[in-house]
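Problem statement: downstream parser choked on a complex file, so we are re-checking the raw output for the phosphoric acid mono(formamide)ester run. The parser issue turned out to be on our end (a line-ending mismatch), but while we're here, posting the original submission so the record is complete.
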Amino acid sequence: MTVEQINSQGNLRHLITLADLERHQIERIIDRASSYLTPLGHPPPRDSILKGHTVANLFFEASTRTRASFELAAKRLSADVLNLDVNMSARTKGESLLDTIYTLQAMQVDIFVVRDASTGVPVRIAKHVAPHVSVLNAGESDVSHPTQGLLDLMTVQRHKGDVGKLCIAIVGDIKHSRVARSAFEAFTKFDVGEIRFVGPVELLPEDDMTGARSFTELDDGIRDADVVMSLRIQKERFGELGEIPDPQEYFRRYGLTEDRLRVAKPDAIVMHPGPMNRGVEIEGSLADGPRSVIQEQVTNGLAVRMSVLALVYEHISANRGSPR
Ligand code: CP
């Protein structure tokens, strides 16, 4: 990490990774996110904090949840919102990433929300923007998805309270998953009792997330777990040499079903970041059933994105007009 995420006044400037945020800084984001929750069917929360500010969503990789929730979050905070259609942008004519950023910055964009399949893109942008401008990582390769990690932690806390004694099992393609990495970073900051990775040996991480226990048998990995998080197979990150598992065989061995969840704690919750492949990593009836908190993850995700956008306002407003 080579940019400061927290400015000299202690305010959030960029959100690139959870790895070097302190626990109290994560708590601040989640506390504010909680203030942006209203029950479904009620009017959504609104705040005018970003009135007169502009948020640009640059998604160079597909997204439903993250993109839609960042857009709604910015609008609910009264920002002007630009969703760049990257397939129709001048990048297809050879314009560089940084020239795209400089062009949008010249239109007074204050916050860039960026998703990209390559490692290092959010940091690269953050290093080149004007002093008042913020960069929020909306998913970076297989490395980092910080708002997902925050919403996952928030969802677990809202169901289980103190996470210190919990056993959390993450099942599936951990190796290629930025969701698993950011969730691991969030959970370890809050001293989760036990984190387990469960999946075929070729989809388990090598050794960059020390402290987690690895399991290759589903029943062993989810036994007595309080939280079971299912992940999809990230086919797009296998490269030419990787062998994508057969979906039916994978479901037989690692698919989460109501039946197989019997070995977890009776009150275990089931999570999935989406997008789901029903019948591959998770049974549809489990995803839709009473133990599933998958839709709550989505709701909390919008609140987390509102929180992060609102918190970078302090930095932007204090630094607008600063020389480059
Ligand atoms: N969880 C997640 O990042 O979903 P999207 O790819 O739809 O944004």
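For whoever reads this later: The mean pLDDT is 95.
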